[in-house]
Design brief:
The complex is a heterodimer of chains A (348) and B (313). Chain A has 17 helices and two strands. By secondary structure, chain A is an all-alpha fold. Chain B is globular and about 75 Å long. Classes of the chains: A mainly alpha (348), B mainly alpha (313).
């Protein structure tokens, strides 16, 4: 029983194959008793025997593996076109190799630099203004005494997470657009309409507002779960020692949330170059490429729309590699600070 | 991704309480000051209103009749004489029905396939089997790195899936996060159950179908709903891969006729009798309603499913 009650490890540790190493007997039906012997540690049992024993399990992996190959690993190899002058009619095999030229060209391309800058700028906005909101909401909700208010608010706040970006933008447009609800109201009072949705200068505010609207409630769940796992007797003891509300928050609540906050920050940093794809594609026309072009939309418009397959792929590859490095680095930093990060144990 | 990934790493040794446990105010907790109380109430009310008002506005406007819309100047918060005219109009043209059909097809087939691929993969790697570890690592790697837009596009093109509904389905039938949730759930199923079935001669498929799946209904429901919502909401794949108007899913229709604001009536192939405002709203509502319908189920299960699947228990 001990083996099975063993906790499921955290996400990364989920990579470790479970510890019930010897738990699986061979199949019994119609075989001599010997065949049902417990599984011996890897290596002692022959490869062929294991293959025979696991063949149905291996068969079950096939659909997933085919998926991974077709839509993940082979496309990764397809990134070689970033080093080619890819021509669709020639294909990958016959297109000319140009080395790093596409990357060099990118950094001479003002549009790319603009997109790169916009990405960083918007990411900074998100990090500063978006990140704390779910935490604050969770602290408020956690302090509510009325169970009913808690439930009602949670139901409302989670909902937008499940709406598509198209729908979210459509709703924002109906509220804030030039002919939207609020501007209609302003006009009726004889005031000038405010171009919430089309002003490039305030675009970061709009983007962050949309993200808060869509996902802050959902992100709150994680903090709520973490808050619920803080030992209430700590609060009680602190209160008995005369610590007020703010001191308790500073010395108990925030340290209790530390690992969750670090984890989310790492994920956020790894995601920093993917500021949000659909959101920007949908609003690029209204705000203009100057403000709304980010790395992902640049890849799309250069590659798929403009036919510059190789430079699009180069931009995409650069972004992917930088993101992976960022997440790796952030994770290292987290380890330095004694936190688990996302790769809690060494995976593998 | 950031938000959905994270409940898995709560590392305090204690079992997390039910999210909605009843927090009666303990004796040692001081009553909040009126100011603090007001700020809290204000934040909660404003946030809730920002979610409810736009939805109410859209639904009401889609139901409003011509006269009320004219006097209100475009939007109404409550339809005085509700009429289904706008809906009759959009369902008379072929486009909306067509898109709904496409979205429904993609969602249903996609979810079934996705569950099949995810369940088999998660079960096969939840026990110590040959190649289990490298396969899990290969899946987890997808969380770290993305192949990129252009190569994915070229792959779909190579497979001849451009302008085929399968281009909306196949790239979405496996998600690493859902895999992780499902797999940790399977790993927590008592080994004894599986062993005894095996001794009785059950094959791995039988064990999965007769023992593991019935025990995992909650997590299968959650993961299935996540996949379904994802398929219903997906818009970008359609933008990339689908040119043929008759194969547009509802999200793409919504984008082209509402967000981009090209004349709804012309594009939908209908003669506009009710004001175009309510037609647009009706299209928004049509995309919204399925989500609102599954939302109660989602809500019932997701915290439980995701947390049991992922948090130390």
């Amino acid at each position: 029983m001990n083996q099975t009650t063993e906790a499921a490890p955290a996400l990364p540790a989920a990579g470790d194959v479970p510890a019930h190493a010897e738990g699986r007997p061979g199949r019994g039906k119609g075989r001599p008793a010997k065949a049902t012997a417990r599984r011996t540690p890897a290596g002692k049992q022959g490869f062929r025997a294991r293959l025979r024993r696991d063949k149905q399990m291996l068969l079950m992996m096939v659909p997933g593996i085919v998926f991974l190959l077709l839509f993940f690993y082979i496309p990764i190899l397809g990134n070689v076109i970033a080093f080619q002058d890819y021509q669709p009619f020639l294909g990958i095999g016959d297109s000319l190799w140009v080395g790093w030229q596409n990357f060099v060209d990118l950094f001479d391309n003002p549009d790319f630099l603009q997109a790169f800058w916009n990405t960083l700028y918007l990411a900074a906005w998100q990090l500063v203004f978006l990140f704390p909101v779910p935490l604050v909401l969770a602290l408020i909700v956690d302090s509510l005494v009325s169970l009913r208010i808690r439930r009602v608010f949670q139901s409302i706040a989670y909902l937008p997470h499940f709406l598509s970006w198209v729908l979210v933008i459509a709703l924002f447009q109906q509220m804030l657009g030039g002919a939207g609800f609020i501007n209609n109201g302003l006009r009726q009072f004889g005031l000038d309409p405010i171009p919430f949705m089309t002003n490039p200068e305030t675009f970061p505010v709009l983007v962050v507002a949309q993200m808060i609207w869509k996902d802050a409630g959902w992100a709150m769940i994680i903090f709520l779960a973490a808050l619920a796992s803080i030992d209430a007797s700590l609060y009680e003891a602190a209160a008995a020692d005369g610590a007020g509300r703010w001191r308790r928050m500073w010395h108990i609540t925030l340290p209790g949330l530390r690992s969750v906050i670090v984890l989310l920050l790492i994920l956020r940093i790894g995601d920093i170059l993917s500021v949000g794809f659909e959101q920007f594609i949908l609003q690029r026309d209204a705000v203009g490429a100057g403000a709304a072009e980010v790395l992902d939309t640049f890849t799309y418009y250069t590659g798929v729309v403009g036919g510059g397959w190789s430079s699009g792929a180069a931009a995409g590859l650069a972004k992917g590699v930088v993101s992976a490095l960022l997440i790796y680095a952030a994770n290292k930093v987290a380890h330095r600070f004694g936190e688990d990060g996302i790769f809690a144990k060494k995976v593998g | 991704m950031a938000t959905t990934l994270s409940p898995v790493n709560l590392r305090s040794g204690r079992k997390p309480k039910e999210l909605n446990y009843n927090p009666k105010r303990p004796v040692w907790k001081e009553r909040p000051s009126p100011l603090y109380q007001t700020i809290k109430a204000l934040v909660l009310v404003l946030f809730s209103a920002s979610v409810i008002v736009p939805i109410l506005l859209v639904v009401s406007t889609s139901l409003a009749d011509k006269e009320q819309l004219a006097t209100a100047g475009g939007f109404v918060l409550w339809p005085e004489r509700p009429t289904l005219e706008a809906y009759e109009t959009i369902f008379n043209g072929p486009m909306v029905l067509n898109s709904l059909g496409v979205s429904a097809f993609v969602t249903i087939i996609g979810t079934v396939l996705a569950l099949f691929v995810t369940i088999t993969m998660a079960y096969a790697t939840s026990r110590p089997v040959l190649f289990g570890r490298p396969v899990v690592l290969a899946v987890l790697f997808t969380l770290l790195f993305a192949p990129g837009l252009i190569p994915s596009f070229l792959m779909i093109k190579q497979l001849g899936l451009l302008d085929s509904l399968w281009s909306l389905i196949l790239p979405g039938i496996f998600g690493a996060f859902n895999f992780v949730v499902m797999r940790s759930f399977f790993m927590n199923i008592p080994q004894e159950l599986i062993e005894s079935a095996r001794i009785d001669g059950a094959s791995d498929w039988t064990i999965l179908w007769r023992i593991v799946m019935p025990l995992s209904k909650a997590v299968i429901a959650v993961v299935g709903l996540f996949y379904a919502v994802g398929f219903w909401n997906s818009f970008f794949n359609a933008l990339l891969y689908i040119n043929d108007h008759s194969k547009w899913p509802i999200q793409l229709l919504l984008r082209n006729f509402v967000v981009q604001g090209s004349g709804a009536a012309d594009g939908l192939g209908i003669s506009s009798v009710p004001p175009s405002q309510s037609i647009q709203m009706a299209v928004v509502v049509v995309a919204l309603v399925p989500i609102l319908m599954v939302y109660p189920f989602l809500q019932k299960h997701f915290t439980k499913g995701v947390l049991t699947g992922a948090v130390k228990g």
